[in-house]
Amino acid sequence: MKLSKEQQATFILQKNTLLNGVIDIVPLESFEIKLKESIVNNRPLKIKFGLDPTAPDVHLGHTVVINKLKQFQDFGHKIQIIIGDFTGKIGDPSDREATRKQLTDEEVIYNAKTYFEQISKIINKENIEVFYNSKWLKQLDLTEVLNIASSITLSRLLERKDFTNRFNNNKPIALHEFFYPLMQGYDSVALECDIEIGGTDQLFNLLMGRHLQSYYQQQEQVVLTLPLLEGLDGVQKMSKSKNNYVGIDESPKDMYGKLMSYPDNLMEKYINLVTHYNIENKKSLIENIKRNEIHPKTAKMQIAKHIVAIYHGEKEAEIAEQEFNNVFGKNALPKDIDEVKLDSGNYDTCTLLTEYLSLFNSKSEARRMMANDGVKINGKKIGKEQSEIKVENGMIVQVGKRKFKRIKV
């Protein structure tokens, strides 16, 4: 396809930006053709992103894909958000070792509402199309469902690693779970999508969209996948259940503090995947870190402030940074410490830390932190041998570098 000089420059800019950080491009040639046709014909591409509202919270791991949506939106492409109110009641079996608990209509509606409110902090909600897939999936009669099912073999479905592992380990796979990728693929048919994006764990489901579009004699969508973001532990995928996450609705102070705690070797990934710097600024910052022209802590502070500003604004980001410097640079106490009312007297240490102050999820976790000198009372470390604590008015209990509670008697 012949492009003018100006159109070619636009194509290169969009291609380099939109493919930055992408893992899978299926297929690259089709992506380039669709992008060129979009530029020449001044026709925005339809970009599909499906959300199954199985939980109400959005964390930075989720924003990896949402940030890519923003880039497409900034170039004028049409964002199609699909709320899986139908599929969400089943639950995506990807990366699951057991069948998900099915959600109620009320849970799905509540989670969908909070999801949409939170992702609207990143993408312009006035310039997206939102669809609920129950609109078309509920209309499918049994004949059409069987036709869709006949387009795929059981052996193909068992190519999915999660299904294969469960099958080989004699763990049950409910029949309805096999229909999940088919239903997600049918969403692409219903909207005649040009491109669908998701995490690398979604590749099988996204390719099913191409398969069913071909079955229905539509032009096949291009599939783009993005990497999964490791959490603050630097090992496992960011997840609330693993307590290694940074929620985008968390307070600026908590966000900033958490963003200073992930391993330095993940800095490049966080820059590429969860910041809103343009591609040149990302490359420049990464190169400066590699050449030791900027100290890792300084770079991490810059990134933390930038990310907090995305979700809370520049002023709150400034305050969060100042508070961090006061607490960790000058060993001062935070300005706002949660206060807990208790009766005076002696308390079992682990019970106080878990049940009364909610600083740990379990007593074993509390004991481990105490053994590592991670618990302080009024600035003094307490060891694992201290089985009791005498509670007094104004006492400050600190866990690690970020958690503080003030006791009021």
Cα Rg: 25 Å
| First and last CA, distance | 76 Å
Strand proportion, as a percent range, falls in 5-15%
Could you describe the largest sheet, including whether it forms a barrel?
6 strands, mixed
> Whole-number average pLDDT?
87
Helix content percent band: 40-55%
The arrangement of helices and strands along the chain is: HEHEHEHEHHHHHEHEHHHHHEEHHEEEEE
Strand order of the largest sheet: 1-6-5-2-3-4
Number of DSSP-assigned strands: 13
Tell me the structural class: alpha/beta
Categorize the overall geometry. Answer: globular
Low-confidence stretches: 95-99
Number of H- or I-type helical stretches: 17
SSE layout and pairing:
Blueprint: H1 5-18, E1 24-26, H2 28-41, E2 46-51, H3 60-74, E3 78-83, H4 105-119, E4 128-132, H5 134-137, H6 142-150, H7 154-157, H8 161-168, H9 175-191, E5 195-199, H10 203-215, E6 222-226, H11 252-259, H12 267-274, H13 279-290, H14 296-312, H15 314-329, E7 338-341, E8 345-348, H16 349-356, H17 363-371, E9 375-377, E10 380-381, E11 388-391, E12 396-399, E13 403-408
Parallel strand pairs: 2-3, 2-5, 3-4, 5-6, 7-13
Antiparallel strand pairs: 1-6, 8-11, 9-10, 9-12, 12-13
Helix pairs in contact: 1-2, 9-10, 11-14, 11-15, 12-13, 14-15, 16-17
